[in-house]
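Sat 14:20. Reprocessing the chain from the morning session after the first attempt stalled halfway. Input below, unchanged.
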Amino acid sequence: MFLRWTVRRHYIGTSPCEGLFPSKRPPRERTLTGKELASVFKTALKGTDAFSNIVALLVLTGQRRGEVAALQWSWIDTKERTITLPSSATKNKRAHTFPYGKRAAAVLKRIPRASETYVFPASRDKVKGKPATIFNGWGKPKEAFDRESGVTDWQLHDIRRTFASNLAALGVPLPTIEKLLNHVSGSFGGIVSVYQRHDWLPEMRDAVQKWETRLGALVR
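Finished this time. C-alpha coordinates:
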Protein backbone atom coordinates (compact mmCIF):
# COMPACT_ATOMS: atom_id res chain seq x y z
CA MET A 1 0.00 0.00 0.00
CA PHE A 2 2.81 2.40 0.87
CA LEU A 3 4.71 1.61 -2.32
CA ARG A 4 1.60 2.14 -4.45
CA TRP A 5 1.26 5.55 -2.76
CA THR A 6 4.87 6.43 -3.62
CA VAL A 7 4.22 5.49 -7.27
CA ARG A 8 1.14 7.72 -7.40
CA ARG A 9 3.20 10.58 -5.95
CA HIS A 10 5.96 9.88 -8.50
CA TYR A 11 8.56 9.28 -5.80
CA ILE A 12 9.46 5.99 -7.52
CA GLY A 13 8.79 4.77 -11.04
CA THR A 14 7.47 1.30 -10.30
CA SER A 15 6.73 -0.67 -7.17
CA PRO A 16 8.96 -3.67 -6.43
CA CYS A 17 5.80 -5.34 -5.09
CA GLU A 18 3.96 -5.04 -8.41
CA GLY A 19 1.98 -8.21 -9.04
CA LEU A 20 2.25 -9.43 -5.46
CA PHE A 21 -0.81 -9.91 -3.30
CA PRO A 22 -0.92 -10.48 0.46
CA SER A 23 -1.92 -13.98 1.43
CA LYS A 24 -5.05 -14.37 3.51
CA ARG A 25 -4.84 -16.28 6.76
CA PRO A 26 -7.48 -18.97 7.19
CA PRO A 27 -10.05 -18.03 9.83
CA ARG A 28 -9.43 -19.49 13.28
CA GLU A 29 -11.75 -22.28 14.33
CA ARG A 30 -10.51 -22.83 17.89
CA THR A 31 -13.12 -23.06 20.61
CA LEU A 32 -12.45 -23.98 24.21
CA THR A 33 -13.73 -27.32 25.45
CA GLY A 34 -15.91 -27.39 28.53
CA LYS A 35 -12.94 -28.42 30.65
CA GLU A 36 -10.74 -25.66 29.19
CA LEU A 37 -13.46 -23.05 29.58
CA ALA A 38 -13.96 -24.05 33.21
CA SER A 39 -10.23 -23.78 33.90
CA VAL A 40 -9.94 -20.38 32.19
CA PHE A 41 -13.00 -19.02 34.00
CA LYS A 42 -11.89 -20.35 37.41
CA THR A 43 -8.45 -18.82 36.94
CA ALA A 44 -9.98 -15.50 35.90
CA LEU A 45 -12.27 -15.43 38.94
CA LYS A 46 -9.39 -16.31 41.25
CA GLY A 47 -7.16 -13.53 39.93
CA THR A 48 -7.46 -9.94 41.10
CA ASP A 49 -5.39 -8.19 38.43
CA ALA A 50 -6.80 -6.29 35.45
CA PHE A 51 -6.05 -9.06 32.98
CA SER A 52 -7.96 -11.66 35.02
CA ASN A 53 -10.96 -9.35 35.34
CA ILE A 54 -10.91 -8.68 31.60
CA VAL A 55 -10.84 -12.41 30.86
CA ALA A 56 -13.73 -13.00 33.27
CA LEU A 57 -15.82 -10.35 31.50
CA LEU A 58 -14.89 -11.75 28.09
CA VAL A 59 -16.17 -15.16 29.17
CA LEU A 60 -19.35 -13.70 30.66
CA THR A 61 -20.25 -11.25 27.90
CA GLY A 62 -18.66 -12.53 24.69
CA GLN A 63 -17.53 -9.04 23.72
CA ARG A 64 -14.31 -8.15 21.92
CA ARG A 65 -11.04 -7.80 23.81
CA GLY A 66 -10.49 -4.19 22.83
CA GLU A 67 -14.04 -3.21 23.73
CA VAL A 68 -13.81 -4.67 27.23
CA ALA A 69 -10.36 -3.16 27.79
CA ALA A 70 -11.74 0.26 26.79
CA LEU A 71 -14.71 0.11 29.17
CA GLN A 72 -15.60 3.32 30.96
CA TRP A 73 -17.56 3.53 34.19
CA SER A 74 -20.10 5.85 32.58
CA TRP A 75 -21.02 3.16 30.05
CA ILE A 76 -22.23 0.82 32.79
CA ASP A 77 -25.82 1.09 34.03
CA THR A 78 -25.77 -0.87 37.29
CA LYS A 79 -29.50 -0.37 37.86
CA GLU A 80 -30.58 -1.82 34.51
CA ARG A 81 -27.53 -4.11 34.35
CA THR A 82 -26.60 -3.03 30.86
CA ILE A 83 -23.42 -1.82 29.22
CA THR A 84 -23.56 0.57 26.28
CA LEU A 85 -20.53 0.73 24.05
CA PRO A 86 -20.58 3.96 22.01
CA SER A 87 -19.97 3.80 18.28
CA SER A 88 -16.46 5.16 18.78
CA ALA A 89 -15.54 2.05 20.80
CA THR A 90 -16.96 -0.71 18.57
CA LYS A 91 -15.41 -2.44 15.58
CA ASN A 92 -18.40 -1.79 13.32
CA LYS A 93 -18.84 1.82 14.55
CA ARG A 94 -22.34 1.12 15.82
CA ALA A 95 -23.40 1.71 19.42
CA HIS A 96 -24.07 -1.53 21.25
CA THR A 97 -26.19 -2.00 24.38
CA PHE A 98 -26.16 -5.44 25.96
CA PRO A 99 -27.27 -6.84 29.33
CA TYR A 100 -25.05 -8.54 31.87
CA GLY A 101 -25.91 -10.97 34.64
CA LYS A 102 -25.20 -11.45 38.34
CA ARG A 103 -21.79 -13.01 37.85
CA ALA A 104 -20.64 -10.17 35.61
CA ALA A 105 -22.02 -7.70 38.14
CA ALA A 106 -19.92 -9.36 40.84
CA VAL A 107 -16.79 -9.04 38.69
CA LEU A 108 -17.47 -5.37 37.99
CA LYS A 109 -18.10 -4.71 41.67
CA ARG A 110 -14.72 -6.10 42.75
CA ILE A 111 -12.72 -3.95 40.30
CA PRO A 112 -11.05 -1.04 42.14
CA ARG A 113 -11.66 2.47 40.80
CA ALA A 114 -8.08 3.28 39.88
CA SER A 115 -9.41 5.82 37.37
CA GLU A 116 -12.46 8.07 37.39
CA THR A 117 -12.98 7.30 33.71
CA TYR A 118 -11.62 3.90 32.75
CA VAL A 119 -12.51 0.54 34.25
CA PHE A 120 -9.12 -0.83 33.19
CA PRO A 121 -6.68 2.09 33.09
CA ALA A 122 -3.06 1.66 32.10
CA SER A 123 -0.68 1.71 35.06
CA ARG A 124 0.68 5.13 34.10
CA ASP A 125 -2.78 6.56 34.78
CA LYS A 126 -1.66 6.59 38.41
CA VAL A 127 1.32 8.81 37.66
CA LYS A 128 0.52 12.45 38.31
CA GLY A 129 0.51 14.58 35.20
CA LYS A 130 0.26 11.66 32.77
CA PRO A 131 -2.80 11.27 30.54
CA ALA A 132 -5.11 8.34 31.25
CA THR A 133 -4.93 5.40 28.86
CA ILE A 134 -6.52 1.97 28.81
CA PHE A 135 -4.98 -1.40 29.65
CA ASN A 136 -2.70 -2.63 26.88
CA GLY A 137 -0.21 -5.04 28.47
CA TRP A 138 -1.41 -8.35 27.02
CA GLY A 139 1.67 -10.51 26.45
CA LYS A 140 3.17 -11.25 29.87
CA PRO A 141 -0.16 -11.48 31.74
CA LYS A 142 -1.42 -13.95 29.13
CA GLU A 143 1.67 -16.13 29.54
CA ALA A 144 1.28 -16.14 33.32
CA PHE A 145 -2.45 -16.81 32.98
CA ASP A 146 -1.80 -19.81 30.71
CA ARG A 147 0.63 -21.29 33.23
CA GLU A 148 -1.90 -20.86 36.01
CA SER A 149 -4.88 -22.23 34.06
CA GLY A 150 -3.02 -25.02 32.28
CA VAL A 151 -4.77 -24.12 29.01
CA THR A 152 -2.49 -23.49 26.04
CA ASP A 153 -2.74 -22.74 22.32
CA TRP A 154 -5.62 -20.30 22.60
CA GLN A 155 -6.24 -16.62 22.02
CA LEU A 156 -8.55 -14.24 23.83
CA HIS A 157 -10.74 -13.92 20.74
CA ASP A 158 -11.36 -17.69 20.91
CA ILE A 159 -13.49 -16.95 23.99
CA ARG A 160 -15.91 -14.99 21.79
CA ARG A 161 -16.23 -17.94 19.39
CA THR A 162 -16.71 -20.28 22.36
CA PHE A 163 -19.40 -17.98 23.76
CA ALA A 164 -21.34 -17.96 20.49
CA SER A 165 -21.02 -21.70 19.92
CA ASN A 166 -22.16 -22.55 23.44
CA LEU A 167 -25.17 -20.24 23.24
CA ALA A 168 -26.23 -22.00 20.05
CA ALA A 169 -25.86 -25.35 21.81
CA LEU A 170 -28.09 -24.02 24.60
CA GLY A 171 -30.83 -23.34 22.06
CA VAL A 172 -30.43 -19.56 21.86
CA PRO A 173 -31.67 -18.36 18.43
CA LEU A 174 -29.01 -17.07 16.04
CA PRO A 175 -30.44 -13.51 15.83
CA THR A 176 -30.14 -13.17 19.61
CA ILE A 177 -26.55 -14.41 19.53
CA GLU A 178 -25.71 -11.95 16.76
CA LYS A 179 -27.27 -9.12 18.75
CA LEU A 180 -25.15 -10.01 21.77
CA LEU A 181 -22.05 -10.07 19.57
CA ASN A 182 -23.04 -6.81 17.85
CA HIS A 183 -22.85 -8.36 14.40
CA VAL A 184 -24.38 -6.28 11.63
CA SER A 185 -24.20 -8.95 8.93
CA GLY A 186 -26.02 -12.29 8.96
CA SER A 187 -29.54 -11.97 10.37
CA PHE A 188 -29.34 -8.17 10.42
CA GLY A 189 -27.56 -7.51 7.14
CA GLY A 190 -28.87 -5.55 4.18
CA ILE A 191 -32.36 -4.07 4.29
CA VAL A 192 -33.14 -5.83 7.59
CA SER A 193 -30.87 -3.40 9.44
CA VAL A 194 -32.98 -0.50 8.13
CA TYR A 195 -36.36 -1.78 9.34
CA GLN A 196 -35.51 -3.97 12.34
CA ARG A 197 -35.55 -1.66 15.37
CA HIS A 198 -36.37 -4.08 18.19
CA ASP A 199 -33.64 -3.80 20.85
CA TRP A 200 -33.71 -7.56 21.68
CA LEU A 201 -32.92 -6.83 25.34
CA PRO A 202 -35.45 -9.37 26.76
CA GLU A 203 -34.08 -12.08 24.48
CA MET A 204 -30.48 -11.17 25.30
CA ARG A 205 -31.21 -11.19 29.03
CA ASP A 206 -32.64 -14.69 28.74
CA ALA A 207 -29.57 -15.82 26.81
CA VAL A 208 -27.21 -14.29 29.39
CA GLN A 209 -29.09 -16.07 32.18
CA LYS A 210 -28.74 -19.40 30.38
CA TRP A 211 -25.05 -18.73 29.84
CA GLU A 212 -24.35 -17.84 33.45
CA THR A 213 -26.20 -20.94 34.58
CA ARG A 214 -24.04 -23.00 32.25
CA LEU A 215 -20.86 -21.39 33.55
CA GLY A 216 -21.99 -21.97 37.11
CA ALA A 217 -22.35 -25.69 36.38
CA LEU A 218 -18.84 -25.76 34.86
CA VAL A 219 -17.09 -24.16 37.83
CA ARG A 220 -19.14 -25.84 40.56
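The two ends are 52 Å apart (CA to CA).
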